[in-house]
Amino acid sequence: MSNYQMIAAAALNKPLAMDMGYARVFFSALGLRLGAESLVDAQGQELTRDGMTVVAESYVHPVTGQCRHYDITDGIAVLSIHGALAHKTGNVRPKSGLQGYDGIQTMLNQALIDPDVKGIYLDMHTPGGTVFGAFDTADVIRRANAVKPVWAIANDMNCSAGQLLASAASRRLVTQTGTVGSIGVVVAHADYEKYLENEGVKITLLHSGSHKVEGNPYQALPKDVAARWQAEIDSTRLQFASKVAEYTNLSLQAILDTEAATYNGQAAVDVGLAEQLVNSADGVAMMADHCRNLTRTMSIGNNTMSVAKTAAAAATKPAALAATEQTTEQTAAVVTATEAVASAELVVTLCAEAGMSDQIAPLVTAKLTEAGVKTRLATLGGMRDALAAADLSAIFPEVSANIDDPATMLKVVLTAATAHGDDKEVTSSKQVQTQASSVKQPDHKSAYNDPSRL
Q1: pLDDT at 349
Q2: Residue 323: inside a domain, yes or no?
Q3: How far apart, in whole angstroms, are the C-alpha atoms of residue 160 and residue 325?
Q4: Same domain as 174, residue 95
Q5: CA 274 to chain centre
Q6: How confident is the prediction for the chain on average, in pLDDT?
Q7: Which one of 14, 176, 227, 281 is separated from 186 by 20 to 30 angstroms, measured CA to CA?
Q8: Would you call the peptide bond into 234 cis, given omega within 30 degrees of 0 as the criterion?
Q9: Which tens digit of pLDDT belongs to each residue from 249-276?
Q10: CA 352 from chain center: how many Å?
Q11: Half-sphere exposure of 382 toward its Cβ, with a 13 Å CA cutoff?
Q12: Beta strands in 330-426 (DSSP E)
């Protein structure tokens, strides 16, 4: 018996708890493999074999050829962000209530280069998670807004690290029962000293370095260590609040004054952490309308303005002069059209073809022409290959970020090359520049405690 027949035995004539949209995809794919000629849904709508093929292939990314890790509704990619958030889980979809920041970035990058996606919608229900990975992921979301609109909805929760990610979106929605906020940091320390003593167990930690065993669970947390940790927590909270303030245009003091409180529904809008109260069933359609209007405005806005200006100018000048200027303007229009700034969609396509999707955001922001984008990608490709040949691939992100600043770029390369010549492992020029400074104290608490949680 083939695997498909086994799947059919488990799926056909059995009740399934499955989303109707995905059910069409699933049964189209299964039906094709079982030789079915058509698929009829509960409403009597029939899909022919060709139609089943189209539906089945809709789950495959048109650029990467891999399965899409999100659903698309009316041109909007819906990215589910559910459960606790953690660093480097290796999973795209939530697993046992845990979702990785790396998975979120993978979904986001897929959607950015997907030609069928016009906007990205973060459907969030998360209490937060680890600090590790949170800030970088928020920055990635923020950069993505330069390529395609990114919205976030608290459906029904984006708290703490979830609030950080949502704040990076260009628009933030909340349901009537949605909860947002909790802009603070917590660290837990477990003290088993008394318990072990009662059990007749004594743990001895032999160590070198006075800070090596700080925060171990076999003794009470010393006051000086607690004070030092508190300072680190306060610093992380300030970093957290600063990011939210930067993303939302709220004042830093206003964010700090929340004292990590949470807000529900309309209260979230009133305090500025959300912008609109919506029904969760309407959010995607609202974003789809926004993207359609955005495209329409971009298509006709400049043309309408140009016609109005031309008409006003012609009305105040002699006919011959107006005719001459009209001809000049038409010629200029041809030149302008030729030298038009490359659209975000075109940049996405060119970067994907060049295998440099990491350059999408900076190239969109640079507002280059199509020729300019191609030239920049060719230059970056040559630099990438040259650095790889010199075993300096690790500094390519830093070099590419400074391509418009030759002096800084040269300094980065020379610094890294010098370190490489001294047989040091190079990950960035900053690593080399700080090697002469005092040695940083190790991260003592990570050996015994969970990482700081947002």
Answers
A1: 82
A2: no
A3: 59
A4: yes
A5: 18
A6: 80
A7: 176
A8: no
A9: 999 999 999 999 999 999 999 999 999 9
A10: 17
A11: 6
A12: none
What does the block give as tokens for 319?
């006919």
Q: Are residues 375 and 242 in the same domain?
A: no
- 307 pLDDT tier (thresholds 50, 70, 90): very low
CA-only gyration radius of the chain, Å: 28
pLDDT tens for 171-227 read 999 999 999 999 999 999 999 999 999 999 999 999 999 999 999 999 999 999 999
Query: What is the Cα–Cα distance from 418 to 287, expressed in whole angstroms?
Result: 50
Q: Within a domain: residue 94?
A: yes
User: In this structure, are 85 and 144 located in the same domain?
Assistant: yes
Judge whether 451 lies within some domain.
no
Q: How far apart are CA 9 and CA 5, in angstroms?
A: 6
pLDDT beyond 70 at 394: yes
209's torsion region: left (phi>0), alpha (psi -120 to 50) or beta? left
Judge contact between 98 and 86, C-beta under 8 A: yes
Verify that 102 and 250 share a domain, yes or no: yes
Q: Are 186 and 449 in contact (CB under 8 A)?
A: no
Same domain flag for 248 and 123: yes
Whether residue 301 lies inside any domain: the answer is no
89 and 49 together in one domain: no
- The CA-atom distances, in angstroms, between 115 and each of 72, 220, 273, 346, 348 are 11, 57, 31, 10, 9
Question: Which residue numbers are catalytic?
Answer: 160
User: What residue numbers bound the domain in which 48 lies?
Assistant: 3-57
CA distances from 198 to 213, 220, 408 (A): 22, 15, 62
240-256 pLDDT, tens digit each: 999 999 999 999 999 99
Are residues 384 and 354 in contact, defined by beta-carbon separation less than 8 angstroms? Answer: no
288 forms beta bridges with: none
**Is residue 246 within 8 Å of residue 220, measured between CB atoms?**
no
Residues 39 and 148 in one domain: no
Residue 442 has pLDDT above 80, yes or no: no
The CATH number of residue 269's host domain is: 3.90.226.10
Confidence of residue 309 (pLDDT cuts 50, 70, 90): very low
Q: How far apart are CA 129 and CA 125, in angstroms?
A: 12
77 and 120 share one domain: yes
